[in-house]
Write a structure and sequence with these properties.
By secondary structure, the chain is of the alpha+beta class. The chain contains four helices and three strands; from the N terminus they run ββααβαα. The longest helix is centred in the middle third of the chain and has 15 residues. Pfam families: Phage_TAC_4.
């Protein structure tokens, strides 16, 4: 039965983060993100927040990293299978370290979030 009340405020969703390795290969690290559930109106606001406007000035890499960190903190509450120098806690600093160390992490996490909210089955996002 479809209900309009949320049974949970969040859900785990798989994310595969690529990294180039020797020999022209790419390896993927499989993690799980605990994403927040959002209403249609909330998703529209999130989409607008993620889309730069025509008047937005270019930003530095440092500012981009901070913006990406802020955005993911809006959509996620936790993670699994992530270790930042022995620390597995989902914190701003740890998230920022992951996003800095893995250049495609932001894109893959955000892509997985939108796949989940668009009703797409979990699939390899490679």
């Amino acid at each position: 039965m479809l209900k309009t009340t949320r049974t949970t405020d969040s859900f785990l969703w798989p994310v595969r983060i690529p990294q180039a390795v020797d020999g022209g290969r790419v390896e993927h690290s499989a993690i799980q993100m605990q994403f927040r559930r959002f209403s249609r109106e909330e998703l529209a606001t999130l989409r607008d927040d993620a889309t730069p406007g025509p008047d937005d000035a270019p930003i530095s890499q440092e500012e981009a990293l901070e913006r990406d960190t802020d955005y993911i903190l809006k959509i996620a509450t936790n993670w699994k299978d992530v270790d930042v120098d022995g620390d597995t806690e989902f914190t701003r600093d740890n998230l920022r370290a992951v996003l800095n160390a893995y250049p495609m992490a932001t894109a893959r996490i955000v892509e997985a979030f939108w796949q989940a909210h668009n009703g797409e089955a979990a699939r390899k996002n490679s």
